[in-house]
Amino acid sequence: MNDTWRQIRPATAILICASIMLTLSMGLRQSLGLFMQPMTRDIALTVSEFTFAIAIQNLAWGLAQPFTGALVVRAGYRAVMVAGGVLYVLGLVCLAIADGVWMVTLGAGVLIGLALACNASSIANAVASRAVPAGVRSTVLGLVSAAGSLGAMLAAPIGQSLQTEFGWRMGVLGFVVVSLVLIPVGWIAGRVDRVPLPPRVPSDVHEEDDARRMAMAALRHLPFLVMTVAFFVCGMQLVFLTTHLPSYLELCGMDPMLSAKALGMIGGFNILGSLFFGWAGERWSKTGLLGTLYISRSLVLAWFFSSAATPESTLLFSGLMGFLWMGVSPLFAGAVAEMFGLRWQAMIQGIAFFSHQMGSFLGAFGGGLVFQAFGSYDLAWRFGVGLGLAAGIVQLAFAVMRPPPAMAH
Hints:
Number of domains: 1
Structural class: mainly alpha
CATH superfamily: MFS general substrate transporter like domains
Helix content: over 70%
Order of helices and strands: HHHHHHHHHHHHHHHHHHH
């Protein structure tokens, strides 16, 4: 442990600020579902229109992520992360003053989606990967993801409390104030631009400075493609939950504050899961662990939605899901760094993340359409569980039969 700390210590400020950036960007975004029911009553939105805005957010995030990942090679991490902070603030301001579907879609959808491409998991993980030596990278990615999990514990209670006392607009304005912190922490985390990249291997085919060729090489790499397809299902499951869990619990007659507690519980157990999977990724196959995680998550989803919800079962479910939530992040980022190296890590993660966000689009918008059509979420959760089990089994089987070779170091 002392040796690990000695290797991490020079990058402490970078890692702390990258963690804060990640925790705020993800925590605020994961808590937007708290405002769905009051907004649909107050400004005459339908559930499907609100979930369409969240789906657009995920689509914008996924479409922009490969480009912001490539941009950091040219412009540096600092410029990208600070721009993301500004976009996040503007998006929440638009949401707070929204009086119809177009402002909700612009704020919660387009602007926050573009902001997340600049300051959420792909960029934060790439910053952390570059800031530390390879020998402690997986553990550090777990630490950053763990710290990044605190956001939902902070944002959900703040948003729900302000909303209960003063209305949903004040809840969103509270989020605006919190989001202002993204700008200075992005600036400080941008010190990573000064950290030199490891020496390139002379025989490495990815030595050249060519984003297009790197992208094509990744898309021809079978282990990466398997991870990317499974990542689609991951996004579908998680965004279905963050968008629709508050609505589902309200349908079950639960106290509205239980939604905030559940999201906070997910954030809390995220910490343990991120630390565990970051630690495990140093010792066992990252792709095998990903498959196991997807299978476990799907089984937990099946148990909760197939049984009668109670406050106790909801909090237990939230804790289990939290443990299995952002543990994906250090495993996926570490696997990409092992396969392709650090220079283009953010861009290649962005390519995979586009698949993740297509799944997120389906989870948010598709869940809303299913609910609007049938008045329940039964078809949606069954579909998500089935795909999750299939993706996890394929990922695990592929990891056992064909461990992914490293393409760069």
